[in-house]
Amino acid sequence: MADFHQNGVITTLHNLNCRSLEDLESDLCQFAKRRPLGLVLPSLYSELQTQALPKIIDELKKVPYLSQIIIGLDRANLAEYQHALEFFGQLPQQHRVLWNDGPRLRAIDAELRSKGLAPEEMGKGRNVWYCFGYALATNQVKALALHDCDIVTYERGLLARLLYPVAQPAFQYKFCKGYYARAAKGTLNGRVSRLLVTPLIRTLKRQFPDNEYLEYLDSFRYPLAGEFSFRLDVLNDLRIPSDWGLEIGVLAEMKRNYASNRLCQVDICDRYDHKHQDLSAGNDNGGLSKMSIDISKALFRKLATQGAVFNEGVMRTIKASYYRLALDFIESYRNDAIINGLDIDVHKEEAAVELFAENILKAGDNFLNHSMETPFIPSWHRVSAAVPDILERLVEAVELDTQEFLQLPAKAS
Q1: Which of 68, 124, 227, 279 is most buried by a 10 A CB count?
Q2: How far apart are alpha carbons 176 and 37 in whole angstroms?
Q3: pLDDT of residue 276
Q4: What are the Cα distances from residue 398, in Å, to 47, 112, 120?
């Protein structure tokens, strides 16, 4: 059972009473009459072949309150898209699969790219951005959640608790972020959040004291959680990064656009496990190594917009201070693991901290030498202003793909 402590500047909604799923879903069915609810699932085609996504679909089939499910499908050829249409066709809710690699959506992307209005790189951020555009275009829901497709411990109560804060008419929250303990199979997980993000935020708070943004970030119990929920109107002005800075970038946008009392976090499950990324030491373009660089850059960029001054000396100070603090965190997590009967490999923990310290310097060097980078994808409000019929054309492309290929027999992959 959780504590009831409120830390930081945003509201924390705990799991104090293990309220039954039936009660939660009954409430959500009532809320959905006034505020229709939806879900975004950003998926790689390869995730259809895993154990996680089929289980997620089996759970979602039982959800009674969703009006719309939007699936963003990446890295799929025609045969794989057809298979995905059949796979997601199990869902009883109204749903659509956005074939991001198909010629129709590629043509829209190319047009926007020619105007400087499209995501710069492939990835989850781009996938989510197009799904958000589709949600705005169809306007079928007033609030929606987002979660990943690789959650191996998925139960539909996670979705119920994630949506509840933005669905409840008596609440005024525009945005909610899920949190949970990253412990599974007898070990403590979540290295990037535990060993990079939290100690780096605490380090930056020392370097830039009394910074409201850092205090805000430090209020989130799991800042890298990929589970969010929003009121639909939030998506119009939301700018998100296309790289691994997505989660941190979304938090920055919420802080920019809304007062802290319109934001919250909620305990969404007792156990959580998903696909684990390799540390990828020696490869700055993959795994946790790339993730740590992208996240660090996202933090530096945001602080710079607030007037924080960075130079090589400051970056070296941040790296040294982070390294000492992160090693102290390892001891704290080791003791926490021991009292809970969990395993933790101190050697691997320290190797991760060493890599992250190096990558903080790399991120700083990249930031200092590429200050004109525009890491955010433009908001849909801006895109619609430049191309007024773009949302209608996005819906048309998805419908034409569905009508053309759903009726054809699926080809062998």
Answers
A1: 227
A2: 14
A3: 63
A4: 21, 17, 22
Residue with tokens 């898209």: 81
Has residue 413 got a pLDDT over 50? no
Task: Supply the pLDDT for residue 2.
Answer: 64
Query: How sure is the predictor about 412, in pLDDT bands with cuts at 50, 70 and 90?
Result: very low
Q: Cα(239)–Cα(216) distance, rounded to whole angstroms?
A: 18
- CB atoms closer than 10 angstroms to residue 327: 16
Element (H, E) at 199: helix 198-207
CA dihedral 51, 184, 281, 347 (to 10 degrees): -150
Contact present, 242 and 121 (Cβ < 8 Å): yes
DSSP-derived secondary structure letter, 258: S
DSSP class per residue in 34-82 = HS-EEEEEEEEGGGGGSSHHHHHHHHHTT-SSEEEEEEEEES--HHHHH
Residue 83 to residue 411: CA distance in whole angstroms: 8
Taking the C-alpha atoms of residue 269 and residue 252, their distance in angstroms, rounded to an integer, is 24
Q: How far apart are CA 136 and CA 328, in angstroms?
A: 45
